[in-house]
């Protein structure tokens, strides 16, 4: 995934979080342009981390695009991502064209 992002956005700075709790901490301190959120992380899963971020953003003008990275793409799962506050998802295995298209959509590149 890191290599694919580097190919699509060669001048980007990629920050990796080892778990959902660290993902939230990095969001709070780094204010990223976008979050690619894995659904299966320790500490906080992707839905829990997203809900936390959306709660913190509520009442502000801030909105960080959050895209689920997941192999679970049936309609119930996709609905749960949307209900948690995610903007979209990228299906695993991730294809370069799909990643490129989503990044273009949410980063206006």
How would you explain this protein's 3D organization?
With 109 residues, the chain is an alpha/beta fold. It has a single domain, classed as Response regulator (Rossmann fold), CATH 3.40.50.2300. The protein contains five helices and three strands. Strands 1-2-3 form a three-stranded parallel sheet, with helices on both faces. Strand 2 (66-70), helix 4 (75-84) and strand 3 (88-91) form a beta-alpha-beta unit. Helix 2 packs parallel to helix 3. The radius of gyration is 13 Å and the shape is globular. The two termini are 18 Å apart. The mean pLDDT is 95.
Topology:
Elements: H1 2-8, H2 20-30, E1 35-38, H3 46-57, E2 66-70, H4 75-84, E3 88-91, H5 96-107
Short description:
By secondary structure, the protein is of the alpha/beta class. The protein has five helices and three strands; from the N terminus they run ααβαβαβα. The protein has helices spanning 2-8, 20-30, 46-57, 75-84, 96-107, and strands spanning 35-38, 66-70, 88-91.
Write the CATH architecture name: 3-Layer(aba) Sandwich
Annotation, overall tally of beta strands: 3
Indicate the CATH class. Answer: Alpha Beta
The largest pleated sheet is described as: 3 strands, parallel
Q: Which range does the strand content fall in?
A: 5-15%
Average pLDDT, to the nearest integer?
A: 95
Percentage of residues in helical conformation: 40-55%
Give the distance, in angstroms, between the N- and C-terminal Cα atoms. 18 Å
Quick one: CATH superfamily?
Answer: Response regulator
SSE pattern, N- to C-terminal: HHEHEHEH
* Sheet with the most strands: spatial strand order: 1-2-3
**Coarse structural class:** alpha/beta
Query: What name is given to the CATH topology?
Result: Rossmann fold
Q: Compute the gyration radius: what is it? A: 13 Å
Query: How many domains comprise the coordinates?
Result: 1
Quick one: overall form? globular
Low-confidence stretches: none
How large is the count of helical segments? 5
Oligomer: single chain
């Amino acid at each position: 995934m890191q290599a694919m992002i580097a190919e699509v956005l060669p001048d980007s700075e990629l920050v990796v979080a080892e778990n959902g709790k660290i993902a939230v901490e990095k969001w709070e301190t780094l204010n990223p342009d976008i979050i690619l959120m894995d659904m299966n992380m320790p500490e906080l899963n992707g839905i829990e981390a997203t809900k936390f971020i959306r709660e913190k953003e509520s009442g502000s003008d801030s909105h960080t695009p959050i895209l689920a990275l997941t192999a679970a793409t049936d309609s119930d799962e996709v609905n749960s991502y949307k209900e948690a506050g995610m903007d979209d998802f990228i299906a695993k295995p991730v294809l370069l064209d799909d990643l490129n298209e989503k990044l273009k959509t949410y980063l206006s590149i």
